[in-house]
């Protein structure tokens, strides 16, 4: 009968729409789960795939300090081991209370070594009075910030190491979030610079 035909056609098209909707939802869910569990690539030996080494220099005559190099690049989607060797023995004030914490590093921790022959301790934060600078990349894509304790002396650095992953390519600004030194803070490639994530 024509009326039954119309009814079954209507149900058929509803069924097709339902199947399309279910397939779409499953695909989206699988992608979200896959993205969430996807881990960054590691190196061939199981260690970090890339390294970023920065030195915090200190000029005792001026009290100025700078991260060198100021403009850096890292590969996208790779596990990067960042090492910051700080020769600046001065402490500074934090603008925000959470900035003595490690934020956004893999595992939420960093290692701190005081002096070239000092032992390494793994920490998720440091005492708020034991900070010289921070290395922070804060924007809608990345939320990474590590506190950097002062050097033991100008010739005995404190070395901070952490792992990070940069999945999204682009050029981002890094900066120190401390009230460390007005002229350094206002100078490109001293207390701020660029981090380029290369796909
Ligand atoms: Cu600083």
- CATH fold-level label of the largest domain: Immunoglobulin-like
Spatial sequence of strands, sheet with the most strands: 2-1-4-10-6-7
Structural class: alpha+beta
Name the helicity range: 10-25%
Shape: elongated
What are the distinct ligands in this entry? copper (II) ion
Radius of gyration: 24 Å
Give the CATH level 1 class of the largest domain: Mainly Beta
Supply the number of structural domains. 2
* Distance linking N and C termini: 62 Å
Instruction: Report the mean per-residue pLDDT as an integer.
Output: 86
CATH superfamily of the largest domain: Cupredoxins -  blue copper proteins
Overview of the molecule:
The structure is a single chain. It contains two helices and 13 strands; from the N terminus they run H-E-E-E-E-E-E-E-E-E-E-E-E-H-E. A hairpin with a 4-residue loop joins strand 8 (133-138) and strand 9. It is of the alpha+beta class. The longest helix has 36 residues, at 2-37. The radius of gyration is 24 Å and the shape is elongated. The protein folds into two domains: 1-38; 50-198, Immunoglobulin-like (Sandwich). Helices cover 20% and strands 37% of the residues.
Keywords summarizing the entry:
13 strands, 6-stranded mixed sheet, 199 residues, alpha+beta, 3-stranded mixed sheet, binds copper (II) ion
């Amino acid at each position: 009968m024509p009326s039954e035909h119309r009814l079954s056609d209507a149900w058929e098209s509803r069924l097709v729409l339902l199947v399309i909707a279910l397939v779409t939802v499953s695909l989206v869910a699988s992608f979200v789960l896959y993205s969430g569990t996807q881990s960054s690539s590691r190196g061939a030996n199981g260690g970090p795939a890339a390294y970023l080494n920065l030195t915090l220099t200190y000029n005792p005559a001026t009290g100025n300090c700078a991260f060198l190099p100021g403009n850096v690049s890292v590969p996208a989607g790779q596990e990067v081991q960042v090492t910051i060797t700080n020769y600046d023995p001065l402490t500074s004030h934090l603008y925000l209370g959470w900035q003595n914490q490690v934020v956004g590093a893999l595992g939420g921790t960093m290692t701190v070594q005081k002096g070239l022959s000092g032992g390494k301790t793994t920490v998720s934060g440091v005492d708020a009075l034991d900070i010289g600078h921070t290395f922070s990349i804060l924007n809608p894509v990345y939320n990474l910030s590590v506190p950097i304790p002062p050097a033991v002396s100008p010739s005995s650095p404190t070395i901070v190491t952490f792992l990070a992953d940069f999945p999204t390519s682009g050029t981002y600004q890094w900066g120190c979030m401390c009230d460390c030194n007005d002229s350094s803070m206002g100078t490109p490639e001293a207390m701020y610079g660029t981090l380029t994530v290369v796909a």
